[in-house]
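hey so u asked for the seq, here:
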Amino acid sequence: MIAATPTAYMIAARRSTSWIFVLMRSVSIALATFNGAKYLGPQLESLARQTTLPSELVITDDRSTDPTGDIIRGFAKGAPFPVRFHENESRRGYRANFMRAVDLCGSDLIAYCDQDDIWEPGKIAIMARLFDGPDVLLAYHNATVIDENEAPIGRLYKGGPGIRRLAPLAPDPWSLVAGFTQVFRRSLVRFSAMHAASVDPYWPAERLAHDQWQLFLASVFGSVVRVAQPLAQYRQHGDNAFGWSDKHWIETTPSHFLRPESFLIAARNRSDLLRRLPDNVTADEQERARDAISFYDELHRRLGDRISIYSSAALKARTMAFRALLRQRAYSRARGAARFGWKGLLMDGFGGVPLGPIMRRMIL
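ran it, structure tokens below
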């Protein structure tokens, strides 16, 4: 067996008469807690049952008033890996709490962890193997949705089977990929100082959530891998920060289509962020940032036209804005992340053009 190093370790496996050595990257788990005592125990136990153990578990607690801290300290005494427990001096909120946990992690890869879910035993082993090339910056997996009593009620994400690698800028820039499904390279932490200036398109008064932030960076500077296999159980209960819904898209997305101003602000914000990169970026990262700036500038222009479809009082103005988007191939699937897709085409063409202002008043 080859001795572990701070950044990686080797696992030796016997096959026939020869030894095969496989490089496994070290993994830190970043767990942010707040009054999570009710469900924290099963989550911690699932971490201890991993077939490939993490190099460390970093926990930042946001001034819990329940027995969360006692549960963590009790678990740390017998945990099969180091547990580093930090209690915040003042309450930060979940966004900043997770970002602090990430900053304290020291491994090659970092896995976000929520306080109320359950990991499947092979999660770390499967996810760590996906980072076979330097271009893969983030990977995320599916999850089984469970109720308070751990009964399965659905899947977190819909989509095809297997593993899919997404090229830079291919993921939808507004997609919400739950943090507990993400594993990402620690190299992305270099950009943490920029996070405070980010804008959440769904809550413009807030900075990007921790998971939105890592997905944004990874999709700009490298590839993202999507795994269809459920590798965690996502618990739904009354205290979830965000819930889950299996409703049809037409029931859940009208406000997204009809509230483009916040996405307009967010698109410009992302271009501005990428124009202010830290000094330690590589030439390749600078080039990818330039591509992303062009991408978000184009998206900003298209969102401006889309606003006109739903805000202009004159039918002629709404029609002209829609035609402008058609000329720009804004509904094409060729490069989906910068386009509105067929759902947007139906919504804008059959709803926005004839009834845009009325739809805004009805839904918003």
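Residues 249-363 form one domain. Residues 1-22, 243-255 have pLDDT under 50 and may be disordered.
lmk if thats what u needed
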